[in-house]
Amino acid sequence: MTLPLDTRRLLAGPALDGTPERYAAHIARLGVLPLVGGRADLIGSLEASGLLGRGGAGFAVGRKWRALASRDGKDSAVVVANGAEGEPASHKDRTLMAHRPHLVIDGALLAAEAIGASEIVFYVGREHVAAVAAMKAAMAERKPELGKRAKIVLAPLGYVAGEATAVVNYINTGKGKPMTVPPRVSQRGVGKKPTLVQNVESLAYAALIARYGDAWYRMAGRLGSKGTALITLSGAVRDAGVWEIELGTTLGEVAEEAGAREDRTAAVLMGGYFGTWTTARDAWTMPLDPAAMKASGLAFGCGLLWLLPASACGVHATAQIIEYLADASAAQCGPCLFGLRALADATVRLAAGQPASGDLQLIERLIPQTAGRGACHHPDGAVGFMASALNVFGEDFEHHARTGRCSVTGTSGGVR
Amino acid sequence: MDQKLRIDWILCDGYSLCSPEAPEVIDLDEWGYPIIRPGVIAEHELKDVKRAVGACPMSALSLVPQDFDKRS
Ligand SMILES: Cc1cc2nc3c(=O)[nH]c(=O)nc-3n(C[C@H](O)[C@H](O)[C@H](O)COP(=O)(O)O)c2cc1C
Ligand code: SF4
Ligand code: SF4
Question: From the alpha carbon of B55, which atom of ligand 3 is closest?
Answer without folding.
Answer: 1
